[in-house]
Structure formats: structure tokens, C-alpha cells
Amino acid sequence: MNLVTPLNRVLGLGSAKGGVEHWWVQRVSAAALALLGLWFAFAVASLDDYGYATVVAWIQQPGTGVLLILTALTASYHSHLGVRVVIEDYVHDNGTKVILLTLSTFVHAAIAIAALFATLKIALAPAP
Prior knowledge:
The chain is mainly α.
């Protein structure tokens, strides 16, 4: 049984078939962030002190650097998905919506690249 009218079928109106995938990706990234967030909280809490040398030495550990990069990239992607839904749901002017979605994509990409660069720069630098 098809509930889409013939006119809506011709105009391409109706389900875009992308909602379930977006919902799952949002949930999977949230679960990954929950695990990565727990790791980050326990790892930071277990540091002896929070001096520059201690934190740099911690980031320079191979596992820590990789997990920090995963955390930053996952958080940026998860945030991008959430902001996208808010813009799509609450901005009704098509021109403004396109501009905001594009701006959101660029801002989230810039944040992810900056976090990746900063983590790699610290992780690959000579020890202090």
C-alpha cells in the first residue's frame, strides 16, 4: 500500500529514505562518544598533575594520541549531524537554510582539522 499521492510521486515529494540512516549514525556516534568520553575523563583524572610537561607526555603516548584524534573527529561529526537537523527543522527559508548548512559544514570541518593538527603537532613533537 502506497500512501503517496500520484501528484506527490511526480513532484518527488514524500520520504527521502534517509531518515533511518541519519538516526542510526547519530546513535552510533553518540555511543562512540560515550565510550571515548569515559576514557578521556578517567585518563585525565589519573594524571599525576596537570603541568605542561605531564600533559604533553601523556598526549605523546601512541594510544592516547590516537584516542584523542578519534574523540575530536567523532565529536565534530556528531555535532555536525545534530546542528544539521536543527537547521533543517527550524530554518524555513531555503536560501538561508542552504547558507547555514554550508557554513555549518565548513565550521565543523575546520574544527576537526584544527583538533587533528594540534594533536598531531603535540604527539609528534620532541619530548619537552
